[in-house]
Amino acid sequence: MRSWLPVLACLPALLLAACGGDDEEGTPALEGGLPPGQGGTLVWAVADRVESIDPLHADTRSEQLVSRQVHEPLIQTLSGPFGDTREVPGLVRRARPSADETVWTLTLRTGVRFQDGAQFNSQAVLANAERWTANPAGQALLPGLLTFDAPRVDQVRFTLAAPDPGFDDRLAADALGIVSPKVLSGRPAAATIPRGASESGTGPFELRERSPGRLLMARNASWWGTAGQAELGPALDQVEFRVEPESSVRLALLDAGDAHLADELEAAQARQASVDPLLTTLPAGDGTALGLERSVRGVDSARTLPALSGVWLTTIRVPD
Questions:
Q1: Residue 162 belongs to domain spanning
Q2: What is the mean pLDDT of each run of 10 residues along the chain (320 residues)?
Q3: For residue 186, what are the contacts with CB-CB under 8 A and spacing of at least 6?
Q4: Which residues, in sequence order, are CB contacts of 47 under 8 Å at separation 6+?
Q5: Global pTM?
Q6: DSSP state, 79?
Q7: Does 81 reside within a domain?
Q8: How many CB atoms lie within 10 A of CB 5?
Q9: Cα-atom radius of gyration of the chain, to the nearest Å?
Q10: Do 308 and 259 share a structural domain?
């Protein structure tokens, strides 16, 4: 039996990481008095350090994965953890095209705040749209975007050069995650958000600690998806990313029970994991594989493939 199984059972989910090991693993990330999630602490072995959480400039899979948990795109459909089959719209409640599909009007979710306290509203979206149109990466994702304006505080209108029936799908790109206007204010529109701007999104996880070999994210207790009637999670209290450049070492961490998931396994490691009855793999579009403990719940191949950067951690649960 793997060594982490009795450890996971030794304390409630909030204190999961403090059950044993070194001081870093025992760092509690939630403030006292806040209701904990039910999914414990997920440990994910990744190949690359996270240098940037800017969604437009997240280049590696590790950066894309982390940025996606902090920054939400305008268009998304969410479900809750533990088998919840509801489909809840994200930051945009409704996206409607004009009859000729050249003007798209988005109605925004109200009452949402960024992790730094800024309000999510039409002005915040316009600040991001200015950034997208000034940045080559944003221009490539939104070809044909001419102008944008805000008829109301909860409404944004995009005008296109030609009909585009899939413009709402374009706005669902992870790279177009919404960044706080506080972070963008006073900076050139095409600039990368600073490394220290860790509270720059509206998402379900906050970046709490970062070192060369480790990054810790904690559940954002103020996330709009947790409040009110949404109850979308996240299930996890914490997510710890351990950086290991060698795929064989990432597999070893998974095999020893020191990680629940191991990213970017090469073909040889994937074959090795496939013969272990306690492990399984999911193929990635780039020829690598994601290795995981079979006891982990909520990793849906339909959502994670072909790009693992889009993994939505709110639905994942680790054994208790």
A1: 88-184
A2: 30 28 31 48 94 92 91 89 79 98 98 96 98 96 97 98 97 96 89 84 93 93 80 87 96 96 93 93 83 84 52 75
A3: none
A4: 60, 61, 62, 243, 244, 245, 247, 250, 263, 264
A5: 0.83
A6: -
A7: no
A8: 13
A9: 20
A10: yes
